[in-house]
Fold this sequence. Notes:
Number of strands: 12
Number of helices: 10
Shape: globular
Helix content: 25-40%
Strand order of the largest sheet: 8-4-3-9-10-12-11
Largest sheet: 7 strands, mixed
Structural class: alpha/beta
Radius of gyration: 21 Å
CATH topology of the largest domain: Rossmann fold
Distance between the termini: 25 Å
Amino acid sequence: MASLDSPVPAEGDGSSRVREFAFDDEDFVAISTWVKGATGIHLPRQKRELVYGRLAVRLRALGLRSFREYRQIVATDPEEQGRLCNAITTNLTSFFREPHHFEHLRNQVLPAFLQKGGPRRLRIWSAGCASGEEAYSIAMILLESLPGLPDPDVRILATDVDSDVLATAAAGHYAAERMKGLSDGRVRRFFTEVKERGRAVHVVRPELRRLVTFRQLNLMQSLPMSGPLDAIFCRNTVIYFDKNTQRELFGRIAPLQRPGDLLYLGHSESLLSVSNDYESIGRTTYLRR
Length: 289
């Protein structure tokens, strides 16, 4: 769930004030072009100061004087390429964000799953999982709704391009302020409260954690899963892609689903003029044709 809307300190337009680091139009175009190719994220000109603010931290850490020097490092250093991606894609999420999707999963998808005869297999993908709250929210719904787990074959794949937030997700440690949106009953059932550095931290319990597999995945690269995927949560991610990139991505996602499988998008996202493989059946909820 990458976001480019986090505030950064105002830097002006760069034409009349002295910057800490040299940063010109050539630098911005080169970096935004690289980011588009690497992650699919489109950085319009109005994001120039955001790019400067996010990456200035990396220049300080590396002891550099200009973005030109930084670009030379990025061109040959895969580790720094990863740090650049992490810096640009600040992840904003919370437990049970946009709750209507979880209600649809509980009330429409899982009852049909329970009625299936023979071996029961359920696969859900959280694409752009950020720090893991979405994936763990899905897992809570599954544990609350499917009696007898782990007997059915049920798994959640959670992916993100940002290695830093994936580490947070896999650890499953959340500060008290991150528990907003969770009832007291869910906190007691699915988390253990511990003290870390003198403050309360809630740790995901094993029954929740075992349902989720976290993996690093760049949506611009080939998708390693074979499917079929019963439901895909791809929310608040493709809003930063242009239409051509969205069309290419959903052209690769659609074959992973069967007719009748579900796709959930973010509140500002749509498949209009993007894909004919899905039909809208509700608020940012789509059915594979």
